[in-house]
């Protein structure tokens, strides 16, 4: 019996298994399609950071090899010849590197150093340094790079005093801090002189960029604004030779997400947000010789990967985007509780390409096939080659990390909830499950709310199952994957979504004999934190709660979050001037005097999405009303703590949650 117990302990997922996982990102085909470059990341506990290196997979020889080993690599692209990679790195300076001719204010820590390394082998060669963060780069020829940079634009300050100046909203951005008047710009870098020349107008924020095949033009979506950034956005064409900018689609009425040359015109994705607001699913449009015309009027799926997983790092945002490959454009959509690759043709015909992968995390396309970083079964990320009718795994970076591990397999159930789509729910039995025993049970609520739980590997939920908990999770109304009507909960937060969650809990306690109805806990982050706060203010059925990066007060949220000024009026169908009573009615803080549930609050001091004052307000209310409460504020972390926070805080968070539930449930 003792040996059996010891063996079980050795095969359980542990908190620190996170340190063994490899996270993959940025698959990029070489120009001739024969190789795939990609990044591999791993947690470095000793230095409390992530190591990031570049790798190559050779499709001809079916071999992979590491190209860099400094652990400090960032954005990259192939050079025009396809024989090397050009990349941004935080590696130690080489003796030959010259410093940029900029003043001290511009030469701050975010300055980007750019290198080239041959794929056939050899040392990286320093090319240039720019006094900005570089978000993306493209090689135009041997002498020029196109860069998407972040121009911080520091203001002049009297007496050299340390203060921030804000003249616009948003004035902050989660993960970037207080942003002032900064913009993402499109810039040309001359490698010979090191000269950086901005192409985009001073008041433009550049978003998705697509380079023409001849590398002479670029199309970019973005937004021009002064005082307040609107939700709408436009499309601009950049002539990289003449250095001229032409508007191709105005930003007045639509939120355009992506644009590229396609079938003799332009292919675009976008929405006017008139039917379902900010979260409305985009559609494809085609513009030939006039205004864009809708190509997919019946398409009702979000063009993004909404599958929730805490085992990703460094992935590029491809939401609402597509990649043109010949006479088709490839895109990802979330369908039910899976994300898939699809291809669309010039007539609007859509073919589903991937079928076995559960999550398409990032992809590139060339020659009718895709290089994909994805999730298969209960596995961690790997690199795949996907083409119609075939999905082939190319790497096994994470095979060893999960080898011999006893995983809890999510079991699916569909419940009726009054909607045509129904309610997708899962439960996970504790590791070492024994028939006839009852177990403490945790309800986990996802963020968004327009996101999607699936049956992929989620480290924190595997940890909870390994610690002896039943885990319940579902996709209530407001979730993604089932169309606009299902996802549209504007003005209804805390009503139909709450009903769905409680209906699933009712089903679980009535149907699953191993669920202990007297020992239940509830947790969630972001919107899931809002809902956790809401739940403990409306029922005492849970013995403990952990609310993470939460929302408790929609009135104050509207003025402090980086998205609050447009997200709150849209999602709550009310504003502080039009109906402050409705905002308060949907605020968990209003009901905090009814809370009796011991509550752990987890927040980060650099969270600019659900700002820390939300957690402080709820904590103060609980303490004033005599509720047992504990607040953990993680310093230097932001809204992404649970997914891409530094290793030590991530591990500490997991342990705080489990200790709280073990003590209270």
Describe this structure as you would to a colleague.
- With 665 residues, this protein is of the alpha+beta class.
- The protein has a domain at 404-552 and 587-664: Alpha/Beta hydrolase fold, catalytic domain (Rossmann fold).
- The chain contains twelve helices and 38 strands.
- An eight-stranded mixed sheet has the order 31-32-34-33-35-36-37-38, sandwiched between helices. It has a four-stranded antiparallel sheet with strand order 1-2-3-4, with no helix packed on it.
- Helix 7 (554-560) packs antiparallel against helix 8 (564-572).
- The longest helix is centred in the C-terminal third of the chain and has 18 residues, at 647-664.
- The two termini are 27 Å apart.
- Mean pLDDT is 95; it is low at 102-108.
Which descriptors apply to this entry?
665 residues; alpha+beta; Rossmann fold; four-stranded antiparallel sheet; 16% helix; globular
The named CATH superfamily of the domain at 404-552 and 587-664: Alpha/Beta hydrolase fold, catalytic domain
Largest sheet: 8 strands, mixed
Residue windows where pLDDT falls under 50 for at least 5 positions: 102-108
**Which CATH class of the domain at 404-552 and 587-664?**
Alpha Beta
What does the average pLDDT come to?
Answer: 95
End-to-end Cα distance, whole Å, is 27 Å
Q: What is the count of helical runs?
A: 12
What is the CATH third-level topology name of the domain at 404-552 and 587-664? Rossmann fold
Radius of gyration: 25 Å
Please provide the count of β strands: 38
- In spatial order, strands of the major sheet run 31-32-34-33-35-36-37-38
- SS-derived structural category: alpha+beta
Portion in helices: 10-25%
Tell me the strand percentage band: 35-45%
């Amino acid at each position: 019996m003792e040996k059996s117990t010891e063996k079980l302990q050795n095969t359980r997922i542990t908190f620190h298994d996170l340190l063994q996982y490899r996270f993959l990102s940025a698959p990029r085909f070489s120009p001739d399609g024969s190789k795939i470059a990609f990044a591999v990341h791993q947690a470095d506990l000793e230095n409390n950071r992530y190591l990031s290196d570049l790798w190559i997979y050779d499709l001809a020889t079916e071999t992979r090899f590491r190209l860099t080993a400094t652990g400090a690599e960032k954005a990259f692209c192939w050079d025009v010849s396809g024989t090397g990679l050009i990349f941004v790195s935080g590696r130690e300076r080489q003796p030959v590197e010259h410093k940029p001719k900029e003043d001290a204010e511009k030469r701050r820590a975010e300055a980007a150093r750019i290198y080239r390394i041959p794929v056939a082998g050899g040392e990286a060669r320093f090319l240039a340094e720019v006094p900005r963060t570089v978000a993306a780069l493209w090689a135009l020829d041997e002498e020029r790079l196109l860069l998407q940079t972040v121009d911080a634009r520091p203001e002049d300050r009297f007496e050299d005093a340390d203060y921030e100046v804000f003249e616009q909203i948003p004035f902050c951005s989660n993960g970037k801090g207080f942003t002032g008047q900064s913009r993402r710009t499109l810039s040309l870098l001359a490698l010979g002189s090191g000269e950086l020349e901005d192409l985009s107008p001073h008041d433009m924020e550049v978003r998705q960029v697509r380079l023409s095949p001849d590398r002479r033009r670029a199309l970019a979506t973005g937004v021009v604004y002064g005082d307040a950034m609107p939700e709408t956005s436009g499309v601009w064409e950049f002539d990289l030779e003449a250095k001229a900018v032409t508007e191709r689609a105005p930003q007045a009425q639509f939120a355009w997400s992506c644009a590229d040359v396609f079938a003799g015109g332009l292919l675009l994705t976008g929405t006017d947000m008139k039917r379902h607001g900010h979260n409305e699913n985009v559609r494809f449009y085609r513009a030939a010789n006039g205004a864009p015309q809708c190509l997919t009027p019946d398409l009702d799926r979000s063009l993004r990967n909404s599958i929730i997983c805490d085992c990703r790092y460094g992935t590029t945002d491809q939401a609402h985007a597509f990649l043109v490959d010949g006479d088709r454009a490839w895109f990802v959509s979330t369908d039910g509780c899976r994300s898939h690759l699809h291809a669309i043709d010039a007539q609007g015909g859509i073919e589903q390409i991937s079928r076995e992968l559960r999550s398409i995390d990032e992809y590139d396309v060339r020659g009718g096939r895709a290089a994909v970083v994805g999730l298969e079964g209960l596995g961690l990320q790997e690199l795949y080659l996907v083409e119609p009718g075939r999905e082939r795994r190319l790497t096994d970076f994470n095979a060893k990390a999960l080898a011999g591990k006893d995983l809890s397999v999510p079991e699916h159930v569909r419940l009726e909830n009054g909607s045509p789509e129904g309610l997708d729910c899962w439960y996970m039995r504790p590791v070492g499950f024994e028939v006839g025993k009852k177990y403490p049970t945790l309800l986990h609520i996802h963020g968004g709310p327009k996101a999607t739980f699936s049956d992929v590997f989620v480290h924190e939920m595997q940890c909870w199952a390994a610690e002896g908990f039943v885990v319940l999770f579902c996709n209530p109304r407001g979730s993604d994957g089932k169309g606009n009507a299902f996802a549209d909960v504007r003005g209804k937060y805390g009503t139909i979504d709450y009903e769905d969650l409680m209906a699933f809990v009712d089903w679980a306690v009535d149907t699953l004999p191993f669920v202990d109805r007297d020992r239940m806990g509830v947790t969630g982050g972001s919107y899931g934190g809002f809902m956790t706060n809401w739940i403990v203010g409306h029922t005492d059925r849970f013995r403990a709660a952990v609310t993470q990066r939460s929302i408790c007060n929609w009135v104050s949220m509207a003025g402090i979050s980086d998205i609050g000024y447009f997200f709150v009026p849209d999602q709550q169908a009310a504003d502080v001037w039009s109906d402050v009573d409705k905002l308060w009615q949907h605020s968990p803080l209003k009901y905090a005097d009814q809370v009796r549930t011991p509550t752990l609050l987890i927040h980060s001091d650099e969270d600019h999405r659900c700002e820390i004052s939300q957690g402080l307000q709820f904590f103060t209310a609980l303490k004033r009303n005599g509720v047992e409460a504990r607040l953990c504020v993680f310093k230097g972390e932001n809204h992404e703590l649970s997914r891409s926070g530094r290793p030590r805080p991530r591990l500490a968070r997991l342990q705080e949650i489990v200790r709280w539930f073990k003590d209270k449930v």
